[in-house]
Write a structure and sequence with these properties.
With about 350 residues, the chain is α/β, with parallel strands linked by helices. The chain folds into three domains: about 100 residues, Serine Threonine Protein Phosphatase 5, Tetratricopeptide repeat; about 130 residues, DNA Cyclobutane Dipyrimidine Photolyase, subunit A, domain 3, CATH 1.10.579; about 80 residues. Helices cover about 40% and strands about 5% of the residues. The protein has 16 helices and seven strands. The strands form two sheets. Strands 5-4-3-6-7 form a five-stranded parallel sheet. A two-stranded antiparallel ribbon has the order 1-2. The radius of gyration is 21 Å and the shape is globular. The structure holds flavin-adenine dinucleotide. Flavin-adenine dinucleotide (FAD) binds next to helix 3, helix 5, helix 8, helix 9 and helix 10.
Length: about 350
């Protein structure tokens, strides 16, 4: 599995979505998932764009509601990030219970848990930068609820390798599994994994009832823990040229939209801030993916340095950027980003948020 990076190729993927079949089989490893998240996370496509693409194809909304709802989860998590800011970096609603350590089980990192399909999917994950949603839930449940890790270190490990790294979806989903952003912890046993991932393995530490799973002590295989090493390789610093007669559009890890103000005469800068990647480390594969996607932006130049350094650069004038929780320190003109629905703010549950969204679906 490789991910296309040319914009025309990415648009073709929209045509391949089967939103009706998706509603029935998306939880299965072989289900009709779209693998669009790397493009949505990097801001190449918006959730609104995907949503409207399907509406224009005249699908009956009722038949594709599950797909629309899953897309809306993305906006929901992002709205929480906007509303709560850095508070999402720690336990959001309640303290995670039964935490034994703030590292992660070495067996997960080494793809050596003994749960064959989990180990196989982690190995694939290192190669592709993608993992199915249900498998992400299993991995998070094994780390936090069986291995009793605090969610943050394993979440950062997963974010590091994912091409679709999105800190809102990531941190808040991990917290949802670990129970610090939900009413109860999520657990799955071997039977569940076998059902959804075409496996027939038995006699593993997960091959027990749910009652046993909820109260079991840390299995031996998960007892060794490790702090993941998340080294970042920034591209080399390069010279850029800014035409002082023109405004400067700022692109970044979360905004690589080639259509954004595309008719405007402007300097176009992909800003790679070392401070950002120190706080939110990503793999070389993820960094390269971002750089390849940025090639869809006309005349883009890469600037490795802080926003404050760019402000001092010869020729710098007005900066224009898209709203995002991590762009709070940018100065200049802020454009709003696209959302699927006109629903804003913090909602305690997805379903409270969704209730507002469906009003505009009627
Ligand atoms: C522990 C954990 C960590 C996660 N980390 C990330 C992350 O860093 N980045 C990320 O983009 N997603 C994350 N997710 C959410 C979800 O797993 C991915 O968005 C989804 O698997 C992406 O694959 P896809 O494009 O094939 O999704 P599809 O199933 O085809 O869904 C279509 C689109 O809907 C949205 N979507 C679907 N499911 C979810 C969901 N549960 N939450 C939010 N949006 C969703 C995505 O934009 C996705 O591209 C995480 C989930 C879990 C359980």
């Amino acid at each position: 599995m490789t991910f296309e990076t040319s914009y025309p190729g990415i648009l073709e993927k929209l045509d391949q979505i089967d939103p009706v079949k998706y509603g029935w089989d998306r939880n299965f490893g072989h289900g009709s998932v779209t693998r669009l998240s790397p493009y949505i996370s990097r801001g190449v496509l918006s959730t609104k764009q995907v949503f409207h693409f399907l509406l224009d194809k005249k699908y009956e909304v009722g038949k594709i509601q599950k797909f629309i709802q899953e897309l809306a989860w993305r906006d929901y998590w992002q709205q929480i990030w906007v509303a709560k800011g850095d508070l999402i970096n720690d336990d959001l609603k309640s303290t995670q219970e039964k935490v034994a350590h703030r590292q992660m089980p070495a067996a997960l990192l080494q793809a050596n848990t003994g749960i064959s399909v989990v180990d196989q999917k982690i190995r694939e994950f290192y190669q592709t930068g993608y993992m199915h949603n249900h498998m992400r839930m299993y991995v998070a449940a094994i780390a936090c609820n069986i291995g009793r890790s605090h969610w943050k270190a394993p979440a950062q490990w997963m974010y590091y390798h994912l091409l679709d790294a999105d800190w809102a979806s990531n941190a808040l989903s991990w917290q949802w599994v670990a129970g610090s952003n939900s009413h109860k912890k999520y657990i799955a046993n071997q039977e569940n994994i076998n059902k959804y991932f075409d496996s027939d393995q038995r006699d593993t530490f997960l091959d027990v009832s749910y009652a046993q799973l909820a109260s079991m002590s840390i299995p031996g295989i998960l007892s060794e823990t490790i702090v993941p090493e998340l080294n970042v390789f920034l591209p080399a610093e390069r010279e850029i040229f800014l035409d002082r007669e023109l405004p400067t559009l700022i692109y970044n890890f979360y905004n690589l939209d080639p259509l954004w103000r595309s008719d405007m005469k402007a300097n176009r800068i992909l800003l790679i801030e070392p401070s950002h990647f120190k706080q939110y480390p990503v793999s070389e594969q993820s960094m390269d993916f971002m750089l390849s996607l940025s090639e869809n932006i006309r005349d883009v130049q890469v600037f490795v340095g802080e926003f404050s350094q760019l402000q001092q650069w010869p020729g710098a004038s007005t900066f224009i950027f898209k709203e995002h929780p991590l762009s709070g320190h940018y100065q200049g003109v802020m454009d709003h980003r696209d959302w699927m629905f006109d629903v804003r703010g913090y909602f305690k549950s997805f379903f409270a948020f969704w209730k507002q969204c469906v009003k505009s679906l009627a």
